[in-house]
Amino acid sequence: MAEQNTSNKLHIAMHPWVATGHMTPFLYLSNELAKRGHKITFFVPHKAQLHLQKLNHFPQLITFQNVKIPHVEGLPLGTETASEIPISINYLLVRAVEKTRDQVEEALGAIKPDIVLYDTAHWLPAVARKFGIKTVCYNVVCAASLAIALVPARNIPKDRAITVEELSEPPPGYPSTKLVLRGHEAKTLLFLSMPWVEGMTFYESITTAMKESDAIAIRTSRELEGNLCDYMSTQYQKSVLLSGPVLPKESDHNEKLEEPLCNWLDGFGQGSVVFCAFGSQLMLEKKQFQELLLGFEATGLPFLVALKAPEGCESIEEALPEGFEERVKGRGVVSRGWVQQSLILNHSSVGCFVNHCGFGSMWESLMSKKQIVLVPHLGDQLLNTKLLVEELEVAVEAKKDENDWVSKESLREAIKLVMDKDSEVGDRVKKNHEKWLEILSKPGLMDGYIDNFVQSLKDLRNA
Hints:
By secondary structure, the chain is α/β, with parallel strands linked by helices. The protein is 40% helix and 13% strand.
């Protein structure tokens, strides 16, 4: 048995999945832990470190540990992060990351942290146990998606693919009637049964990651998902720790909004600009990409759109609708690269945030004072959207047709619903949003989540 460590400070290793939407919240949490004097070793590929290091507010306590991602057949040479590839070949990057196991084991053996936080690396608990290191599976997706799909009660069979009908029914004991994907929505969960790593489906990989951990943690709050977190704890028969959303405060930012963009935003009235971002991985079909841009144009409002070049296109420019740039000149900008999302949301001229409702963007939406329009694409994004639209009633969803197509008219209508001053829907979601923002912004609430999280980690270390 490992000798009990009574030190007041922890040494924590962070091993997130190599996607921006996973690494960034792990680093936000690292900053909060380092702010309280705890030491962090952060496993990260070299390319990702170049992007993340400017978000490291405590370099004296947060050390990046580089991991070399090997090449596997089918993966473009030099790929290190999920943002470099289409979602369809994510499984190849998963297999490449699994081949870093020896690197991670050697590093853990050398640094011997008290605890490792990880998310998708199902193999990490077995490695950590060799050195008496405790493990916490820290999930940066909503509890709703974990509870409805990735639970033992679902009992997805190994000898056949799960059906849409099975996924359309919540698992036994599931505590929500609204957070359920029905019919064609459930099709987005069929990826659970796809081959993921050798001998494992996606479902088996993720549920194993949680089963093998010493504790489960989720980037959420009891105010929003308390009943779902309790359900998860019952399902896995272990503690579920909550970190809160762990978003940087405006005062925490070391960087400022880039001057050309800041100057452009400064040219518009308060709350008048529509900002759109769909995360670092989503790649739309060209026709859908163009349809959405025409929808922004049709609003008549100033807009800033940050999307990846669509499928089959080398650049944003070649994908723009004919005559689009000339028609929106001065009031419409389509970004050619990564943008400072949180800083843009803090700008006073931005009044509406159109996003895919990935969990990070969901929290940034909820904790901002902007109106929210959602265009979800994948399973957990659909559940996040249901949480904001149907349970909290703080957002509007751009409706899709039977082919999952968002028309320019549908997008325009959704934006106008929340942006028009005489809109009853816009007034209702704004008031509900203000109510929830007041609850979640209560002084000391979020710091209390982190303090309790730290105490739980100390208790786990000393158990």
